[in-house]
Task: inverse folding
């Protein structure tokens, strides 16, 4: 007598009844899947999964005209061991990024429905592979956030420096010595050394040249 392999328990959260009906019918044709239930809202889905065990959850992002699927995904990840695949008709990189932050293991566009069974198996086996178009959107969002972070950091550092310290940094970056800078400002070398000391405390670095290079790299100069 052979022992039948356990089926992958799939739960669906989708508020479009026509799309839900078609997806359920499509998935039931897969011999290794068992559709254990479905919900039409995020809260309903969370409640179900607090009481039942699923292996993989297909979660629509947009329900009730808002992205409540993101909230529901985060709650499901916290309350169960199910692995969540986000479904959407959109490839908005902000939604994609937020989906993975919520704990989803994959993000699929509904038009790629023929790839959903493969994605379910991948999620179940903990080897989800992100669709190339989604991966590119993720890379774009990471680049945008990194650039934004750098711009904020630059503004914060620039705000720490006084106008005189910025001038001193600029002259150091252009190759002037501290003695030359003191002569240019008609101040003592000690005054310039105090400015340089303050700059190093604010920007970090082992030398004034290193601090000036850092300021240039960050766009402060």
Result:
């Amino acid at each position: 007598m052979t022992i039948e392999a356990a089926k992958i328990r799939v739960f669906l959260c989708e508020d479009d009844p026509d799309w839900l009906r078609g997806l359920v019918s499509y998935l039931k044709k897969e011999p290794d899947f068992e559709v254990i239930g479905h919900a039409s809202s995020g809260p309903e889905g969370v409640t179900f999964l607090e009481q039942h065990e699923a292996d993989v959850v297909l979660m629509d992002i947009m329900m009730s005209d808002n992205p409540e699927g993101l909230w529901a995904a985060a709650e499901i990840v916290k309350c169960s061991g199910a692995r969540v695949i986000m479904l959407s008709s959109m490839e908005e990189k902000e939604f994609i990024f937020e989906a993975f932050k919520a704990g989803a293991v994959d993000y699929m566009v509904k038009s790629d429905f023929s790839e959903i069974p493969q994605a379910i198996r991948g999620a179940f086996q903990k080897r989800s592979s992100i669709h190339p178009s989604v991966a590119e959107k993720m890379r774009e969002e990471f680049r945008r956030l990194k650039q934004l972070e750098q711009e904020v950091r630059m503004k914060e550092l620039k705000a720490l420096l006084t106008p005189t310290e910025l001038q001193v940094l600029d002259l150091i970056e252009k190759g002037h010595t501290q003695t030359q800078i003191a002569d240019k400002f008609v101040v003592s070398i000690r005054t310039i050394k105090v400015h340089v000391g303050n700059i190093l405390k604010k920007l970090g670095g082992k030398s004034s040249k290193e601090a000036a290079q850092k300021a240039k790299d960050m766009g402060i100069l």
The first helix runs from residue 17 to 27. Strands lie at 8-13, 33-39, 56-60, 83-88, 106-109. The chain has a mean pLDDT of 86. The radius of gyration is 28 Å.
